[in-house]
Amino acid sequence: MSENGKGNGRDSQLALRELQQQLMRLSPKRRMDALLDGEDARAVVRALPPESLYLTIQEVGLADATELVQLASAAQFRAFVDLGAWTRDKLDAHQALTWLRAARGGFDDTQEFLRKLHALDLEVLELVLREFVVLHDREENPDVNPQGVTLETPEGRYLVEITAEGVEMSAVRALVNDLIAENPFEAVRLLEAVRWEIPGELEETAFQFRKGRLLDLGFPSLEEAVSLFSRVDVGAPRGRAASTALTSAQGHVDYLEAAFKGLTDVERQNAEDELTGVANAVLVAELADPGDLDAVRRVGEMTRDSLSLGLEHLTGGDPAQATEVLRDTPLRRVFQTGFSLTLQLKFRADRLAKAPGAVVDGVLMVLPEEAAAVEALRRKRPRRALRVEGAEPVPFRSLREIAASEAVLARAEAQVEVLRGVLGGTPEAARAAVARFGVPMEALGVERLFAAVVAMAVLEVRADARPVPLGRGAELGQRLFEGTPQAPRLLASASERALSGLEGAVAPDAREELRRMVGLTLAKLLSELGPSWLEDLQWSPVASEVLPMETSPVP
Questions:
Q1: What CA–CA distance (Å, rounded) separates 411 from 508?
Q2: How many other CB atoms are there within 10 angstroms of residue 192's CB atom?
Q3: Which has fewest Cβ within 10 Å: 129, 293, 352, 512?
């Protein structure tokens, strides 16, 4: 408090911030009830930032939050339309009309409604009217007789045909009537402008006005937003082993939350403003609409994940240091650090995909798990592939996940070396080997191709990429399996023969991965083909789905 006993500006800002925080801790419905049940609901509502109020309205649902819209100021309402009625650079006239319907109270609120209406850019109003009305000039066509609902302008020259239906028709009719009742001359001028203005120019002008207001709300230009994703020097990781151990023992650690816990009230307020700025920049860079609630949530989670990852790196994996790091490091730099850690993986994955022999006929020569990981890492925003079929890749959240992806990349790099070697050592030899299978590489698949390589190595103790020859299927089964259909086993000699035949073709630093790949392949052959072979001593009709086999001799 100041000496005269009146709260100063800082006190008011802190009080408003505290009110916002208290409200945001409530569920959307309870938050709205708290706003409406206050002693001076209108003043409280109008004191809130428009984007926070918009979020509450969208979470509750516009149909159930019309009272909040009606209590909002004209400037807040304009922000609602900026956020909720645009898709990138296109105005959705139906959505704009929906917001206008929500803003309309009873008869006594007409003046308040008109204040909100006139707060909109004139171009927005013209675009809405252009979507739903057609103006007929009786001087040009005295016999005009539209079939729809019409209104006559006061001087009798024009018929205003309303093309909307249902509740939209009622809303447009009330809108036109309000404009005429307020100022007949200006209303007619507006309708004439709607008739002749070029829609594209109207929309572009309205979009530029909206773009400027979004800048004022904290949403940067696209150029500035994209710069947030610039690569920075992350420096040497400190305490990497300690970080991994901590995360393994305690589960995921939210370093951003740990950093905020140690801040003073003023520091927290400043940090929250920084956080909002970073999240807004990410939203713009992702080409998402600021009014898209799902996009806001998705981007918010993505932003927190990158910030937590950056803080984990900068603190050396010690959450106790997070507050001090946050005091010394702008959140923008923290975000760039986290994102740059994932960019390092992306660049490594890109180099792998461009390596000689890494791609044959458009297919990356790695097994399915590693292929999914490389594909996820090569996205514009690198992601971590999940080991769940059909699951969407997710953002990185910890250094442990970074380390796991590094291990997958190392396997992928070794697999490229393995496949390059067993297919002949050159791109030309690899293409010739694939051609022996008679189907495109995309249909054959790396897993089936390598199964054939392993099977031929078991048969011939050498690297020979081709389908299992006609007449040698029985021999292959005898060299692979023993036991009973209920308890099938691999012959120990199967792995020995395969490795003896293949290791000489593979570079020494990739042989460990070769042994792993051979083990996985033989285990799959055992589990999927072993029982049926031991049952009938012949291959099942679906065996070729796992192991390519000749249907006719291949040269």
A1: 14
A2: 15
A3: 512
Do 303 and 285 contact (CB within 8 A), yes or no?
Answer: no
CB atoms inside a 10 Å sphere around CB 11: 12
> What is the pLDDT, as a whole number, of residue 183?
95
- Report residues of the chain scoring pLDDT below 70: 1-14, 107, 237-250, 552-555
Q: Report pTM.
A: 0.85
Q: How is residue 303 written in tokens?
A: 């932003």
Q: Give CA–CA dist 293/288, Å, rounded.
A: 10
Contact between 154 and 184 under an 8 Å Cβ cutoff? The reply is: yes
Question: What is the reported pLDDT for 555?
Answer: 43
Tokens of 235: 């420096």
CA–CA separation, 394 and 306 (whole Å): 12
Helices (H), 329-440: 331-354, 368-377, 399-422, 427-435
Amino acid identity at 388: V
The predicted structure's pLDDT at residue 173? 95
- Other Cβ atoms within 10 Å of 475 Cβ, number: 13
Write the pLDDT tens digit of every residue in 266-294: 899 899 999 999 999 999 999 999 999 99
